């Protein structure tokens, strides 16, 4: 079907014409049986199916292992849960202090403003509330939320997420940003979004004008594979960067999609060319029905080892795992310290070569004091 450029470049048209059913997708895509069952059952019981025409055009219609296709087309595997998987793997519900407001860390909160996305990632951490078919519904109450934010003066950083906040109208988004900026102790506003990847047409001049009025404002996008960073996505990201917004990227480590060093290296380098700094590489959360996406942590560390030293330092993301049940982000790093000795520390560089770093007398004395102090803390007094 031929679509006029005016329509194709209109984000409202893209949303209105999303593929949302088995009947629509099977007319355009050769489906394997597992995908067909996924669209019949997982998309109705676990997480809805939705795919923008723009992103659909990036998918290989004949290859079920296409890394973009794997992320967005449901599979029957989603209906199988492992004993260790959870509905709420990050423990957000227990830290929800007002409808849609999660306060876990001392000085920052997560503000969920919508349960809808342009396209739904099949490994979504919030599948219990996102898309409208999960087991829970997202409740939103601006009065309760902003009363809590005003009362708790320790909060200096608000992360707006969902769903995808950039699906909100300019007016609704502007109202939220204005209300946050009216609270004196809130210093930083962040937005988490995958819109520049799934729906780059949404990054309009009017949206950028709204965002620019509320600095300091930061945006983290979500890109998992270099094929997602098209010319359209790059243009959208450059618009945001030109608005003065620092951009970061959060990837999820996914089996068969980006779990090899070369793909990850290509991704981070391409992100930097799009003026986006790689921020986090997440170990896939223990959300129910995602076992087929999960990569062993050991493999993740191997990939990180192939990034450090092989690309620009600020292109290397921090590999993290969310402590199951609400432990927060735990950084994971390859072990570059080989051993501590009386007069030196042995270190391994990115090439595997060993180097000796001397420990001076003052440092040794301080280290001994620390060890004695730690030992004393364990004694009964």
Automatic annotation (TrEMBL):
Region (Disordered): 360-381
EC number: 5.4.3.2
Alphabetized Pfam families for the sequence: LAM_C, Radical_SAM
Catalytic activity reported: L-lysine = (3S)-3,6-diaminohexanoate
PROSITE patterns: RADICAL_SAM
Cofactor: [4Fe-4S] cluster; pyridoxal 5'-phosphate
Composition bias, Basic and acidic residues: 363-373
Radical SAM core domain mapped to chain residues: 103-315
Protein family per UniProt: Belongs to the radical SAM superfamily. KamA family.
Name recorded for this polypeptide: L-lysine 2,3-aminomutase
Origin species: Candidatus Methylacidiphilum infernorum
Lineage: Bacteria, Pseudomonadati, Verrucomicrobiota, Methylacidiphilae, Methylacidiphilales
